DNA sequence: GCCGTTTTCGGCCCGACTGTTTTCAGTCG
């Protein structure tokens, strides 16, 4: 079988990491990092390509192409095997400590014989690290502290769901300060990566010292100050205990700073290289002519991109996965935006047990958000403890018309069905046929293997009354991985049966993820967006679902929620009439 | 190791913060 791009990218990434520790030429390291990124972003299976096809991919040259072919043929890359033999795993582990990079790790290993995090802790404790040339008590104390911090966590990244509320409050407080003109989230949180390493917050101000001092002294938000300078304050927060870097810039640098600090790193590097080719230089303060130093852009992001002859690129697409090339060629898709949504296709009321708000409260909130239609998809009866009975659902049905009229929104009579071990769902076809909209999801037997979960989902899709599959992989970010579905089979079955796949907007789920969204679109799948709201506040999840859709380059045409009521009903009808048994 | 609107060779993105080395290297994003 062919190796996946993900695995090839991992191999190349590990080569880069080990080369860096082996003190290799920095540009050679970077070349492997870039190649790994290019492989990870490729939409076709690189394991199948010839050498000349491989070198056609930007970032892959002759040498890397040989490595990929070597891996495909032998399941191993000789260079990586050599590096693994030469660079000890303990050395790699030590570089996981924030503030401890490859140079210092190498010295600790060579000069002090340290070869694990335990060795490092001991050497910090007895003063050997502090006594190294160029080190001192303060450096050692910082490392000891950083080591303690990573020791308490099993990963150095935090799920977005754990930081969103806290960061919103932090931004609100910053925004209330006299000296603050603008405040916004940048970094991976703006791009909505599913986990964040640290949080970047951008502040426009004429008085950075005042802003920095105000936040630094806010004991409710700040557990610890890591660094404080004229343009940056780094803190560890209370609450989620995450690092937040607050960048302080003048208002006329806002756009350049937003571009710079939103990243991704790969995207901004490409941007700066493009600038150099055009005789410009880009930093967080602006875009300047290289020769004269004359400022040509910087106040807004649109202006900054325009100075590089590019349209504005949505933050969610800035991963260097082809967006710069597409923008350059004028083929960047206009991705779906929250304002394009006409409705929500997955949400709950307290008719099913885990809903936290009444049907009327939810309907009112949905209408106030400007949605034209809203599908209430309470849990069906097989969900132990929480499912609604047939009678409860029939009673709910009677209320939908009047409530819709009262609040000026059309309500779709919906269900969230439970996919059982064999791919069946809660109710018979006759009863299901009386509903407007059905999501079907796996809520039980989450430990089944990949083949079984794929089979359950594909079987459920053959039901003419199952319109979309809810949170398809079942993942909960930071808690449990999703099942490894056989995507090719899932896509084929979805197309054959006219079934959609959901992008679930719960920040804990973001399921399916952006990279799968992109593959699904290529396969011709229709996507649905679901807030999976169990409370009024959860309706905000639509925003996260939309951002996830953008990460997969989804357009209005790919997302069922962007259609009017007739469009949704047409999709439902097409499935019932054309699907197996329809 | 990769790449080409100066180049098939010789470059390759930019700046802040920290600690400590009185002029800068390492790390980070």
What does it look like?
- With 582 residues, the chain is an alpha/beta fold.
- Helices cover 43% and strands 14% of the residues.
- A seven-stranded parallel β-sheet has the order 11-12-13-14-15-16-17.
- The longest helix is centred in the last third of the chain and has 18 residues.
- The model has no long low-confidence stretch (mean pLDDT 91).
- It binds one DNA strand of 29 nucleotides through helix 2, helix 4, helix 7, helix 9 and helix 14.
Task: Please summarize the sheet with the most strands.
Answer: 7 strands, parallel
Q: Which structural category do the helix and sheet elements fall into?
A: alpha/beta
Instruction: Enumerate how many helices there are, as a single number.
Output: 24
Q: Which radius of gyration do the C-alpha atoms yield?
A: 26 Å
